[in-house]
Amino acid sequence: MEDKKQNAATRAKEKYNAAHYDQVKFTVRKGGREVIDSAAEKVGISRNAYILKAVIEQMKRDGIEYTEESPDE
């Protein structure tokens, strides 16, 4: 019974995420994820927030405005 609940909860989360978020996948060399994780941890934010912040900062330098208020932390 607990497996059914967990699976239902997982399905609900996946459905919500699919409706509200876009996912972007990129590849780094072996060990790169750990370097990014370490940098993000050092400044106290998640890997996702760290990468999104870097992308937004580059977009600003390129003269492109990003409309989201701030990355999730």
Q: Could you tell me the mean pLDDT?
A: 89
Strand content: under 5%
Structural class: mainly alpha
| Net shape | extended
SS field, number of helical segments = 3
Number of strands: 0
Topology as H/E string? HHH
Spans of 5+ residues with little confidence (pLDDT < 50)? none
- Profile the largest sheet: none
Protein name: Transcriptional regulator
InterPro entries: Arc_rbn_hlx_hlx
Explain the overall architecture.
This is Transcriptional regulator. This protein is an all-alpha fold and 73 residues long. The chain has a domain at 25-67. 62% of the residues lie in helices and 0% in strands. It is built from three helices and no strands. Helix 2 (32-42) crosses helix 3. The protein is extended and about 50 Å long. It starts with a helix and ends in a 12-residue tail after the last helix. The mean pLDDT is 89.
Topology:
Blueprint: H1 2-20, H2 32-42, H3 47-61
Helix pairs in contact: 2-3
Organism: Cohnella cholangitidis
InterPro entries: Arc_rbn_hlx_hlx
Protein name: Transcriptional regulator
What does this entry show, briefly?
By secondary structure, the chain is mainly alpha-helical. The chain has helices spanning 2-20, 32-42, 47-61. The chain has 3 helices and no strands.
Which features characterize this protein?
73 residues; Transcriptional regulator; Arc_rbn_hlx_hlx; mainly alpha; 3 helices
